[in-house]
Amino acid sequence: MELFTSTYENKIDRKGRVSVPAKFRTILEHRNEPLILTRSLTHACLEGMSSERMNQIADAIDGMDAFSEDAEMLQMIIASAQEMRPDSEGRIVLPEEFLSHANIDETVLFAGIGRSFQLWDPASFKARETKSRSAARDGQMPKLILKPRTPSGAGQ
User: Fold this and answer.
1) Contact 120, 101 (CB under 8 A)
2) In 3-state terms, what secondary structure has residue 18?
3) H or E element: which one contains 25?
4) Which domains does the chain have, with CATH numbers?
5) Is 19 in contact with 117 (CB distance < 8 Å)?
6) How far is CA 16 from the centre of its chain?
7) Cβ contacts of residue 131 below 8 Å, gap of 6+?
8) Per DSSP, what are the bridge partners of residue 119?
9) Within 13 Å, how many C-alpha atoms sit on residue 147's CB side?
10) Quick one: CA dihedral 50, 28, 148, 132, positive or negative?
11) Band of the pLDDT at 144, cuts 50, 70, 90?
């Protein structure tokens, strides 16, 4: 599975459109999946993903106690999600409530984070990156356990 990687900065035009990075669009097109955007629960940013990833989130929530506070909190990911259809030039229009949530004004920073990506105000992302790198240097690096991957389609 191709991962969303790297960071890209794109300007918002006068009509409120921003180009989704070509690499990200290509990944979604290869999967024949729409782009889903939602407001992050934990950061002042937006989360971008395929419908497959959104289905994984829904499946995880379905495995929880439906009336728990945890399930209700995570349901907000789905409640704020919107399907975006890029135009012929790969641009989407970000709704005002999304721009406001992420403090995005003129420029959007797209950050690939593996199976999904985030949309940030560039200065906010830089501050988050600085904080994370500083914490890692100060010995607060989380333990990363890498498991061997099974080849795609193996065991099916």
Assistant:
1) no
2) strand
3) helix 22-30
4) 7-139 (3.40.1550.20)
5) no
6) 20
7) none
8) 46, 110
9) 3
10) negative
11) confident
- Give the total residue count for the chain: 156
Amino acid at site 69: E
Single-letter code of the amino acid located at 20? V
Looking at residue 156, what is its pLDDT? 45
Token output for 89:
């030039």
73-77: long-range contacts, CB 8 A cutoff, minimum separation 24: 73/41, 74/41, 76/39, 76/41, 77/38, 77/41, 77/47
Predicted TM-score (pTM) of this structure:
0.89
Q: How many CB atoms lie within 10 A of CB 110?
A: 23
pLDDT at residue 122, rounded to an integer: 98
Beta strands in 5-106 (DSSP E): 7-11, 17-19, 35-39, 46-50, 82-84, 91-93
Does position 155 have pLDDT exceeding 70, yes or no? no
Q: Both tokens of residue 47? A: 């989360």
Higher pLDDT, 149 or 23: 23
93 in helix, strand or coil?
strand
